[in-house]
User: What shape does this take?
Amino acid sequence: MFVSGQSSTRFVIVLIIIIFLNSPAAALTQYSDPPPILVTKLVHYLTLDSPFYDDYFSNKSARDISLFDLHTNIAQMPFETRLTARPTGGFLVHIKVGSKSFDQFVYMDTGSGLLWINCEPCGHNVPYPIFYPPDSTTFRKENCSLGFCPATGSVKVECKDKGTCTYTARYAGDDFSTGYLARDSITFQGSDEILQQVTFGCARATSGLKVNGMLGLSNNPISLISQMHVSKFGYCIGNISDYKYLYHMLTIGDEIELLGLSQNSPPGRVPATAARLPSQSFRSTD
Assistant: This one.
């Protein structure tokens, strides 16, 4: 399939392919046989598919907010930037966590390096649904001796009493998420692949982040990208002027082909205008 970037006053397609031109950060756990490419929908915060949908916002408001996010969060954005999950904009990824496939909508953030979700018990004003670890038979707390504790990067990870591996992730505007590291299965909506024993953050307290969680996509050793041992991901933003548009897309995998890559492109920032994805990778995400 061939996808190209184009824009007009009423319809915008933005395709971003991120390639870690240096080798991806070494993952601190062993993960075997990742899917060749993972494809899932992106859900805009204000669309009908979003659990945070509010009909107070007009079609024009959704478009203006999305354009602001695209310009501030994508253009010339270095990795490991401390970003804020704005409560009225951005894109969510629908994942299922644990043995009972608990639904979570996590905010996609290319500037941070940790997947985390809110876990019971947690602080006040946390949006539902909230993951309850005892309900999952495959849930395990991350032990201090299992590799990720301590870890370096934008996420502070350290070993606490009773062998608990804790984390603190900070974002712009003094927003933060803090809790402990754990492991469980993760499935992306629309994918048949179950990612086993993924390390993620179980948040016990957050500030200013009105989301179920965050999907950090940088090449930090603790990120999902590094755990999967892949070096590429991409996302396609479609008709952001229509809050009913449901075809935004996120892809993760080394089989994404970048077309027309300039040799002068700086590492980590690729001004892609087109990409080819394996046709067999596309499945219905309904």
